[in-house]
Design goal:
5-stranded parallel beta sheet, 6-stranded parallel beta sheet, Rossmann fold, 3 domains, alpha/beta, homodimer
Chain lengths: ~425, ~425
């Protein structure tokens, strides 16, 4: 771990630079898969599933029998249900009431949110089943009222899906589950095949190829939740923090992958040093210590001279996850501009938000917290505006519309108002 | 105009097919311009401004003197101010209060919206100054609290910008205006040059090239409002509609461009025929009648057997603008799933929303109303989630987190909780 003392603000962006992906190679593979899925549908899915997942499947849809056969331990069932309840409670609180506004007497405007009818959720495969991401995507989709919730996830080389994935999907109202992964899953949900329905918006994490595929899908008129990059955590800890807790949080980020970004900022050099010692101690006990060690090699311990400097650095970096353990935590909470999700105090580890506090763990990485929200209830809805104007209303605003339309050279726009004004006795 | 009687639902998508753009040609030009702007900055902007706008500029930033010299008629000033007031009132009503939720005793979660700090607005050039779009973008940007609001718009071949553009930009708090248009404007705002600052999100309409440039900009980590296509209007009118009004609305859409989409749906064949007659009558008087005539040739008059069928057709088409003139208007208002902005009743022309009712006119075209909102206050903000957990809170949810983290194979995630539980006496 590299310790950096009071770096100058104009060095921050370089200091905290994220790793860049090589896009060119991915782009050609992605467009090739899309083209083949567009032309050959399920046959193409079959081919790529054989190629990338090493299993030969005739049907991709998980059957009723497979769903019913999925069993997990009582302890895990209870944990998932507790997490679901909290996620539901928090996302339900994001519902907004419709407010009708009379902008001018007789001119009533309002905005209503309606569900995106068909959504697709992508859940990556790998060494462990990421059922927690199903909670984070399917719970708000169901609360929003999406009528078709499609889930794609890669099968193992036996052609099977982990029972925790199936259990959670069923619990959260996923309507159809398909054993399809990677670029071919994104292509299937974007274009539709005989088995997999096309959806209007695709959500979920994935590796660089899945991310490139999601971005490519947008050129086919499909929306995506956000571009995704490697996960990242910035901790600000002053002398009120517990070094062992801080170390455990940094390590929980580091175990995600060798490209995870881990940054500790402090106004106390003693804290930096104590956390470094704790990291060494805890690291040796981790089953994923090779991965975590690689990630920690790129990590930074940064000493700054004040809370103000720390805040400026945080807003420049725009971390996906931000932990604040500070005597003046209110200063950071009030003034943070750019972050995905913020964890406050010694008893709020990032893992709480990853699983069970209720907030969403699908968050903007790669500095995108400057312009993107994490997934929330609104991600599964769109706003429609409505307006209703009375005769008095059009008399009040009509002349302004006529003037503006004429100034923009749009005579027919003006006419639409003039005809109505004339009919009610204004000339 | 083509009259279609009771088309079968499985023919709707073909019947209402939108024109497809040829992307390949645009993509190579767009990437070429981006590459040159990235390498040469303002020199590249100069070159393309000469090439596409026919004017040679040394500086692009509109000066204080140019801003102060911009004068428009008193009538237009008053109209713009009235529109601004209504747009402000409506967008201000979209502010949401922060709600703190205790998902489990001791686990407090909330979501706060913060402004996207730097935004870029693109205003197209052409035969008339589109100052109304500045109102639609800069008013919510200012309400949201964006600190840098950059505007790019092409100069005329004298190197000037219309005074109505300058007046409106100043009125709405735009911080910097640049005489840069087309693909080079999008590249400049995405990448930054010595003159033009890089922004986090780009808004605004434009032709196919500008749209392709905005989509390309997203691969450089910039967000965009939405992909844009030709403007479109669907009117549903039953026998309670005034044919002359309906005709004027259809024509106001048709005058936008030859590729505008205009659709009239009715349960009354008499209404379809009367509107057709009115269109012929009104069309001859329009200054932009060539454009409108071309658009009307692609327009459709569709007879359906019931309100229910009309609603299903509307939701399948997902129109940018939807006018509803119907005895049972509530049925449509309650059940429309896919539309950008809805105009209700005989006295609510689309031009009202284009200029002055208060709703936004930057709306999803091309069927994107299925998954995108029009521009609104939230478009200029992002949500950050916060959570603060007490000792009692982590005791309540900690064991569930431990179980889930272990099941996902993430031991360090589990540790971060276990350490804390241990420190407060749980093992």
């Amino acid at each position: 771990m590299k310790k950096i003392i009071n770096p100058l603000p104009d060095t921050w962006l370089n200091l905290l630079e994220r790793p860049a992906n090589e896009r060119a190679d991915m782009d050609s593979l992605v467009s090739e898969v899309f083209e083949e899925v567009q032309k050959k549908g399920d046959t193409a899915i079959q081919k790529y599933t054989q190629l990338f997942d090493g299993t030969s499947l005739k049907t991709f849809k998980v059957s009723e029998e497979e769903m019913n056969a999925a069993t997990i331990s009582k302890e895990l069932t209870a944990a998932i249900q507790l997490a679901k309840k909290n996620i539901e409670t928090f996302h339900n609180s994001q519902k907004t009431a419709t407010e009708r506004i009379e902008t001018t007497p007789g001119v009533i405007c309002w905005q209503e949110k309606r569900a995106i009818q068909k959504v697709g959720l992508y859940i990556p495969g790998g060494t462990a089943p990421l059922f927690s991401t199903i909670l984070m995507l399917a719970v708000p989709a169901q609360l929003a009222g999406c009528t078709e919730i499609v889930l794609c996830t890669p099968p193992n080389n036996e052609g099977e899906i982990d029972p925790a994935i199936l259990y959670t999907a069923k619990l959260c109202g996923v309507t159809k589950i398909f054993k399809v992964g990677g670029v071919q899953a994104i292509a299937a949900m974007a274009l539709g095949t005989a088995s997999v329905p096309a959806v209007y918006k695709i959500f979920g994490p994935g590796n660089q190829f899945v991310t490139a595929a999601k971005q490519y899908a947008t050129t086919f008129g499909v929306a995506i939740d956000m571009p995704a990059g490697p996960s990242e955590l910035l901790v600000f800890a002053d002398e009120t923090a517990v070094p062992a807790f801080v170390a455990s949080d940094l390590l929980s980020q580091a175990e995600h992958g060798a490209d995870s970004q881990v940054v500790l900022v402090s106004t106390s050099e003693k804290m930096l040093d104590e956390v470094a010692v704790e990291i060494e101690k805890q690291l040796t006990l981790l089953p994923r210590k090779e991965i975590a060690t690689l990630a920690m090699q790129n990590s930074k311990l940064i000493l700054v001279d004040s809370n103000k400097t720390a805040l400026a650095l945080i807003n420049t970096y725009a971390p996906e996850h931000l932990i604040i353990v500070a005597e003046d935590e209110a200063y950071f909470v009030e003034n943070v501009q750019n972050a995905g999700s913020v964890f406050i105090g010694n008893y709020t580890p990032e893992s709480a938000g990853d699983y069970a506090s209720g907030t969403n763990h699908t968050l903007p990485t790669n500095g995108f917290a400057k312009q993107y929200s994490g997934v929330n209830l609104d991600s599964f809805m769109k706003s429609i505006t409505f307006q209703k104007i009375s005769e008095a209303g059009i008399q009040a605003i009509g002349p302004a519309i006529e003037t503006m339309a004429a100034a923009e050279g749009l005579q027919a726009h003006k006419n639409a108002v003039s005809l109505r004004l004339k009919s009610i006795g204004n000339e």
